[in-house]
Specification:
There is one protein chain. This protein has 168 residues and is an alpha/beta fold. It has one domain (2-50, 98-167): Dihydrofolate Reductase, subunit A (3-Layer(aba) Sandwich), CATH 3.40.430. The protein contains 4 helices and 13 strands. Strands 1, 4, 5, 6, 7, 8, 9, 11, 12 and 13 form a 10-stranded mixed sheet that branches. β12 and β13 form a beta hairpin. The longest helix is centred in the middle third of the chain and has 12 residues, at 86-97. The radius of gyration is 15 Å and the shape is globular. The relative contact order is 0.26. The model has no long low-confidence stretch (mean pLDDT 91).
């Protein structure tokens, strides 16, 4: 399992249900990395997507304590499910995913619940930027080491690198 996120130097990931900033290059990277794969997110993250609908071309698992459990979409090649506990999510992955890549895509509570299950982190790290934030990625540097540092990029006034970390 892998986690994928945009973070600042304080590990902030968002504010008021929105991303820290808009980085078109990172959005392209996210799509390329997760397309055709399984993505796990919380209900609030799902609600923050355009139209509150899952991203196309990905199997989506939404962890939610809300009552709308079970299948919520199926376009013939990809589907999505609401599940109500981390244990249900892990059982679904074990029984249904069969070796496919699985990405944790937020928000804060979902990252915290599944970080121990991750063997890799793909983090777009903002450099010298501290946008307003109210949600944070869990502390990870004691469990993961930098395996690959991406090139320096700049968009919309933000400098960033897309880095990969592996469990130490």
């Amino acid at each position: 399992m892998k986690a994928i996120a945009v973070i600042d130097q304080n590990r902030a990931i968002g504010s008021a249900g929105e991303l820290l900033c808009r980085l078109p290059g990172d959005l392209v990277h996210f799509k390329k990395t997760t397309l055709g794969k399984t993505v796990i997110m919380g209900r609030k993250t799902l609600d923050s997507l355009p139209g509150g609908k899952p991203l196309p071309g990905r199997n989506t698992i939404v962890l939610s304590r809300k009552a709308r459990l079970g299948r919520f979409y199926d376009d013939g090649s990809f589907s999505g499910f609401f599940l109500s506990s981390p244990e249900e999510v892990l059982a679904y992955i074990k029984n249904e995913i069969h070796g496919e890549e699985v990405f944790i895509a937020g928000g804060e509570q979902i990252y915290r619940l599944f970080l121990d299950q991750c063997d890799e982190l793909i983090l777009t790290e903002l450099i010298h930027a501290f946008p307003d934030a109210d949600s944070y990625f869990p502390e990870f540097r004691d469990q993961f080491i930098l395996a690959e540092e991406g090139p320096l990029q700049e968009e919309n006034g933000y400098r960033y690198r897309i880095n990969r970390y592996r469990r130490s």
